[in-house]
Every structure is written in C-alpha cells, then in structure tokens.
Design goal:
Helix 6 links the parallel strand 2 and strand 3. The chain has 455 residues and is an alpha/beta fold. The chain folds into three domains: 82 residues, SRP54, nucleotide-binding domain (Four Helix Bundle (Hemerythrin (Met), subunit A), Up-down Bundle); 194 residues, Rossmann fold; 147 residues, Orthogonal Bundle (434 Repressor (Amino-terminal Domain)). It has an eight-stranded mixed sheet, with helices on both faces. The radius of gyration is 25 Å and the shape is flat. The longest helix is centred in the C-terminal third of the chain and has 20 residues. Helix 4 crosses helix 11 and helix 12 crosses helix 14. The chain contains 22 helices and eight strands.
Length: 455
C-alpha cells in the first residue's frame, strides 16, 4: 500500500542511517524528501508544512542519550503517527447483545458491499455468529453481489431482490436476525449533497438503531475525505471510518490524514480484493511499515484470517511432532498465497521491506517460483510428497514432464524444503507458527535466515 510514499520514505531512512554525520545540510535534505513524498501522497499542504516545521524545530534540539540520526528517525516516526491519528482506535462489540448491529454508509462505488463481506469474515473468525443484510435497493445486482460474497465468506445473507423499500426489508428480516451475535448492514451508496438520499438515510437510522455506524471511504478520494466525513456525520452519528482501496492509490495518505484532522477515527483499511484483505488501522504499525520497519501485528492478523482453525491445529501437531513433508510445504504455500502477494507480506517483516525497496522485482520472482512449486507438488504421488528423500533423477524427470516445471526448479524446491525442515526441527520457537503465538524476535530470526538462504 502507498508504495510510492513507502519507497521514498525507506530511501530517506536509508540515507539517514548511512550518514556518518547528521549536520544541517543532511537534515534539510531529509526534510525536503519527506515533504515531497507527503505532498505526492495527497496529504493536505497545511498539514505537511506544519509537520515539516515541527521536525525542523525539534531536530535542532539536543536530546540526551540519543545520537542525532536516532533523534531524527524517531522524530519522523512520531510526527507521521501524529498526523495519521496518534493511536489505534479500538472497536468494542458486545457479544451478549443479540444482534449487535453495524451499519455501513458511503459514496457510490466506494466498496461498501465488499467491505461488508470482509468485516463479516473478519469477525466470524473471531467467534462472532455473523450475518449480512443487504439494504442497497438502488444499485442493480447489489443483492446478488452480497449473496455471492457471503457464500465465499461462508456467512448467511438476507436480501430481497424485489422490494425497493429498505426500511420494509429490514422489518421483514428483523426477527430472524435476533439469533445472531453480529449483523452487518450494507446500505445504498449516496452523495452527501443529495438531500433526498440523506433523508432516506436518517429514516433508516431511526428504524434500525445501529450500535455502530462505519463510513466507508475510498483512499483515492484523497484530502477531500474530510468534506465527506463532515457531510455524512450531519446525516447520522458516524462512529468511525473504513478506508478502502489502499492497495491501488497514491492518495491514501491524504485520506488518512484528512480523517484524523476531522477526528473521524479510521478503524480498518482495505488492502485488496480478497476477503482477508482488511486490517485494523494502527497508525504506529502503519508508519513502521512505510518506513521499512515492518508490521508484525498486521502479519499475524493476516495469518489468522488466511488459515482455518482446523488447519492451524494440524500444522501445530505436525511441527510439535517434528514432521514436515512436501504435503505440509504445499499447504503452507497455499496459505501464504491466500494472504496476498509476497511483496505485501515482505513489507510486514522487519528487514524485508528494505530488501523490497532495493530490489523491486525480487518478490515477483519468488511469487512465480511458488506457483511452479505448487504445480510440481500436484504432479507427485502421495508417497513422494510424504517421503521427498525418495525423489531421484528419474522421478524428478517424470514430475517435470507432468507439471511443465523444469527439473532445476524442482531441485531448487527440494533444496528449500530441506532448509525449512532443518529450521523447524532445530528451533522450538517454530512451534509458535503452529499456534499463532510467535514473537517479534522469532520473526526477525526467520527473516534473517530466509533472507540469507532463500533470497
């Protein structure tokens, strides 16, 4: 997300870390790079220049116990967090209330329906008995889209394809919805300048009495996000904001900063098209990722969404028993690919974000390798998957022919498999991967090991 901004910031941090002396000239160069990158990300000019002046002023002060470069890195980190919302805004849901109702509002085409499914998927993975309700009666095929997404997320959906009165539809399903912990309500897109739609929204608000109202806002709206947030807030109390399309725009920084400026708390960000491409927005973690310092918290959240509970138990058992075969490698490749592109995952691991900035195509190459490995494993017999040591030249040639993967790629896969197996067998800390309880130190050790042997 925000690749251009992230790359400039990483280069800036690299320049600062590599400087022998941090004098006034270096400081001004860093400030100039920072200013340019934030303006490119569509952050409001006033916010940018206020931030720059704060950094320039504080950079001239002496801080006991910190070198100049450490002081400047901390300054940039802290000030960026400041403009993006200071701290994570916690969403509190009451499991005892049936149903707890979340209503989504937003502009036309902002991604509300997809976001409704993502939210439902996110909370269902956390123990909430969740249902989706479609009240978008204006957009053609909106009920069908919600049904399809609910099916993918394995969630029940309640829609009416004939009725065009959203309040009446809600009344029709209200009794059935009482058995769910959480109900997520998708509404029609609207323009905050349209008084008719705003009046409809107010009536729906009174009818449903939602416990939380989330405003869904696309990142490409940039700094005009504050105008939309203020407009929707007049129609009904907006509790917080979900920013979508963070994976495909340079203007996401403007949307996030503008929301913060108007005290509209961003709680989630959408980072792709898949159901698991939704993250809690934590300004501190977000800035760490932009600066190339990783975001382990978001990585673990992604892993939780990508791997089913029964799969987690299976992985945990296999690792604890010291077993790891090509079948397990295959399952891990599938789980990794369901988490999203390797480049996204790399941004979350301390150290690998910097590697990506220096060699942009590296993770695309690795992505292609993983696909080939899956094809090769698909062409193996069950015995070969479970006992890879039996793979001789003849078998490898047969697998190559059946999968259209070169013998050299298959041999490389076997080599990498042995490295992974060796690490799992030798490190008790790897048990954390099976349980989901893995600390920062272990992940950094993983990044270092695979950074050296695999990349």
């Amino acid at each position: 997300m925000l690749d251009k901004l992230g790359n400039v910031l990483k280069k800036t941090m690299s320049k600062l870390a590599g400087a022998v002396f941090v004098d006034k000239k270096i400081t001004e160069e860093i400030i100039k790079d920072l200013r340019y990158s934030l303006l490119e990300a569509d952050v409001d000019t006033k916010i940018v220049f206020s931030l720059i002046e704060k950094i320039r002023k504080k950079a001239s002060e002496k801080v006991a116990g910190l070198e100049k470069k450490e002081q400047l890195i901390k300054l940039i980190h802290d000030e960026l967090i400041e403009i993006l919302g200071k701290e994570e805004y916690e969403v509190k849901l009451d499991k005892k209330k049936k149903p707890f109702k979340i209503m989504l509002l937003g502009l036309y085409g902002c991604g509300k329906t997809t976001t409704a499914a993502k939210l439902g998927f996110y909370y269902s993975k956390r123990g909430f008995k969740t249902a989706l309700v479609g009240l978008d009666v204006h957009r053609p095929a909106a009920p069908e889209q919600l049904e399809q997404l609910a099916l993918k997320a394995k969630l029940p959906s309640f829609v009416d394809k004939e009725d065009k009165q959203s309040g009446r539809i809600w009344k029709k399903f209200e009794k059935k919805l009482s058995k769910y912990n959480l109900v997520i309500i998708d509404t029609a897109g609207r323009d905050v300048l349209s008084s008719a739609l705003i009046n409809e929204l107010k009536a729906l608000y009174r009818e449903i009495k939602p416990d939380l109202v989330f405003l869904v806002m696309p990142a490409d709206i940039g700094k005009s996000a504050s105008i939309q947030a203020q407009g929707f807030n007049k129609a009904g109390k907006i509790d917080s904001v979900i920013v979508t399309r963070m994976d495909g725009t340079a203007k996401g920084g403007g949307a996030l900063a503008s929301c913060s400026e108007t005290n509209a708390k961003v709680v989630f960000i959408g980072t792709g098209e898949k159901l698991q491409d939704i993250e809690i927005f934590d300004p501190s973690s977000f800035v760490s990722r932009l600066l190339g310092m990783g975001d382990l918290k978001a990585l673990l959240e992604k892993a939780k969404l990508a791997v089913e509970d029964k799969e987690k138990e299976k992985i945990k058992t296999r690792i604890e028993e010291g077993k790891f075969t090509l079948t397990d490698l295959y399952d891990q490749i599938k789980a990794m690919q369901s988490m999203g592109p390797l480049g996204k995952i790399a941004d979350m691991i301390p150290g690998l974000g910097g590697v990506k900035a220096k060699v942009p195509d590296l993770f695309d190459v690795q992505e292609a390798k993983l696909k080939k490995w899956r094809f090769a494993i698909d062409s193996m017999t069950q015995e070969e998957r479970e006992n890879p040591e039996k793979l001789n030249s003849n078998r490898i040639a047969r697998i190559s022919k059946g999968s259209s993967v070169s013998t050299s790629d298959i041999r490389e896969m076997i080599k990498q498999y042995k490295i992974v197996k060796e690490f799992i067998s030798s490190s008790k800390a790897m048990k954390g991967l099976g349980t989901g309880q893995i600390d920062k130190k272990t992940l950094q050790k993983l990044a270092k090991k695979f950074g050296r042997k695999m990349f």
